[in-house]
Each structure stands twice: as C-alpha cells, then as structure tokens.
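Morning run. Coffee first, then this:
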Amino acid sequence: MALIVTDENFREVLNGDNPVVLDFWAEWCGPCRMVGPIIDDLAIEYAGSVTIGKVDVDDNNEVVTEFGIRNIPTILFFKKGVLVDKQIGAAGKDSFIEKIERLL
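And here it is:
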C-alpha cells in the first residue's frame, strides 16, 4: 500500500534516503481510481528502495500549490529531493516501472 503523504509529512518523505514517487489524486477522479491500484502494487514491489506515496489534492493545498498541480492524476518522480520526471494522466504499469527504474 502506498504511503499517505500530506502537507505535514511531505518534507520528511521527500528528504528521505530513497527516491520518491508521489501520486496526486482525488476520490472523485475516475482516471485516478484506475491508476491507484497500480501505485499500490508498485509501492509493494519497490518497498525499501523507492518511497511511493499518494497525495489527496482535496486535503493538501500546500503541496498541490507548490508543484502547480492542475490535472490529476499527476505522478511526480523525485531523486535526492529534486523533481526529475512526471506523468500527467493515466498510464500503464510498464510506463511507471520504466520511470521508477531510471530513479534507481
């Protein structure tokens, strides 16, 4: 299961030892519900090597504003605290795996 990331714990998650993947989503978003199970699977598969989390855009305005999230789902990929890649809109698991592997 993906880590729940909030305005309060975002900096701690981003400054951890592992690369970070964040899924910006909302409960009411159909494409987000399609991507959600993929993100949860990847969180299990990459446990220990990549931190994979979900940010609910309805509850976390600070992080959403900081990264200018206007469309969801948006998935951001960080290495050493720096944004290095993004995926806007739904995509298949293979696409996410390819982006994650480039973080390692």
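The longest helix spans residues 30-45. Good start to the day.
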